[in-house]
Amino acid sequence: MVSQEFVEIRIEEIVFGGWGLGRCKGKIWFVPYVLQGELIVAEAAEEKKDYVIGKLLKVVEENPARIIPPCQWYQLCGGCVYQHIPYEMQVALKTRQVEEIIKKIAKIDGIKIRRVVPSPKHYGYRNRVTVHIRDGKVGFFSKDRPKRVISVTSCLLADEEVNNKLWELCLRRRLRNGHQTLWNSRHKAYSGFRQVNDEVAEILRSSVTSELEAGGEVLLDAYCGCGFLSEKAASKFKEVYGIDWNARAIAAAKLLEIPNCNWIVGNVDEEIPKLKPYIKNRNAFLLLDPPESGLSKSVVKEILEMNFVKIIYVSCNPATFSRDLVRLSINWQLESVEIFDMFPQTAEIELVGFLTKR
Length: 358
Ligand SMILES: C[S@@+](CC[C@H](N)C(=O)[O-])C[C@H]1O[C@@H](n2cnc3c(N)ncnc32)[C@H](O)[C@@H]1O
Fold this sequence. Notes:
Number of helices: 7
CATH topology of the largest domain: Rossmann fold
Strand order of the largest sheet: 7-17-18-16-15-12-13-14
Shape: globular
CATH superfamily of the largest domain: Vaccinia Virus protein VP39
Number of strands: 18
Order of helices and strands: EEEEEEHEEEEHEHEEHEHEHEHEE
Structural class: alpha/beta
CATH class of the largest domain: Alpha Beta
Bound molecules: S-adenosylmethionine
Largest sheet: 8 strands, mixed
Radius of gyration: 22 Å
């Protein structure tokens, strides 16, 4: 049961996910849309055994850094959580969250951060959005549960062309329930994964490319999508193997027509063992860019049995990244990380970990 009581809480810090952490009556509360040091009034939205998810009712004492969020759907729509925070502060928060999570889960204190890359665009950076359509409403899912569709006619994170498409969709009369991804025409619409923030993705790719500059015999690009990350580094290797289970992504990778690339449709869990005999004792490099859930135990086991020279691990979730660091730690150690703010105004974090052999 959720109590209807209002509580006053002092926010201690903003943790991964954009949650403000505070304490009340021996319980930890997580409340969104707040800032460190603020005194707030909240009510319980969800009560768990060890913590409470709170709903922000009022900010009694504001952090002086707080700004007015520009989006009219902020706090209703589930997308953004940091619009009330100045951009430089958002990047600093995310950097601290990465340090804290790696320290807590991987037990590595004081990681080496090579650099932190802010997004050149703070708004209007998304090359696509996925909107949901329900009973004539077009929009995004609500922040609170049960998830509802919040009607929107534009999104401040999307670029102008995507917003024009969203507006046209809203004007349409008969709409079928479901969802639609609206793309910028710079990208061919295909159903596979593509990085959403072109400018930051390009900086991330150049970082990966320069790390692979020395080249070698084999590059294995696991979770390769349409080959975006290995495309520029491919010429430095005799052979490149890319694996992704999305056939359309692999078809897009093939269109790059890179002669030494072998693009494979399949599950990384199943394909790595098959490639093992070709790669095992060669000068091979591993590029990983898994989904949020990170690496499966079987993929970790395979990696540990292979003799890679270097691992570059691109991650969109510092928690699963840290868990995988622990699993790989028998043979591998984290040399450094780079943090890329691919998703300003949201809680999402993108990082690249550079792993070296112990
Ligand atoms: C974060 S995306 C990375 C894509 C690519 N590296 C890029 O930068 O565009 C993760 C990719 O992993 C693929 N994927 C997820 N789980 C997989 C699995 N078990 N086996 C193969 N591919 C998988 C998805 O289809 C998606 O393309």
